[in-house]
Amino acid sequence: MRRLALLLSIGLLCGSAMQGKAQQKGSAVRLGSAVKISEAVLRDKIKGGWAGQTIGVTFGGPYEFKYNGTFIQDYQPLFYSEGYIRKTMLETPGLYDDLYMDLTFVDVFERLGLDAPVDSFASAFAHAGYKLWHANQAARYNILNGMKAPASGNWINSPHADDIDYQIEADYAGLMSPGMPNAASAISDKIGHIMNYGDGWYGGVYFGAMYSLAFVSSDVPWIVGEALKSIPEGSGYRRCISDVIRWHKQYPSDWHSTWFELQKKWSSDRTCPEGVFLPFDIDATINSAYVVMALLYGNGDFGRTLDIAARAGQDADCNPSSAGGILGTVLGYDKLPEFWKKGLAGGEDIDFKYTTISLNKVYEIGYRHALANIKRNGGHAGSGSVTIQTQEPKPVRLEQSFPGLYPVKKEEVALSADHTVSFEFEGTGFILNGAPRAKNNKSPEYVFQTEVWLDGKKIESPSLPTDFTTRRLEVTWKYPLQKGKHSVTVKVLNPDERYEIRGLAYIVLSDAPVKNSFVSAVPADTAGYRVSTYVYKKELRLDLYSPKTAGVKKMLPVIVLFHGGSWVSGDRSQLNPQCKYFAQQGIAAITADYRLLGKDTGIVDAKSVVRWVKGHARELGIDTGRIILGGASAGGHLATMALLDRGRNDPGDDLSISVSARALVLFNPAYSLADDPTVEPYRLAGGLVPPVVFFYGSKDKWKPAGDSLQVQLKKAGGVCEGWVAEGEVHGFFNKEPWNSATCVHAQNFLARMGLMKPAASREEMMTAYVGG
Question: What pTM did the predictor assign?
Answer without folding.
Answer: 0.69
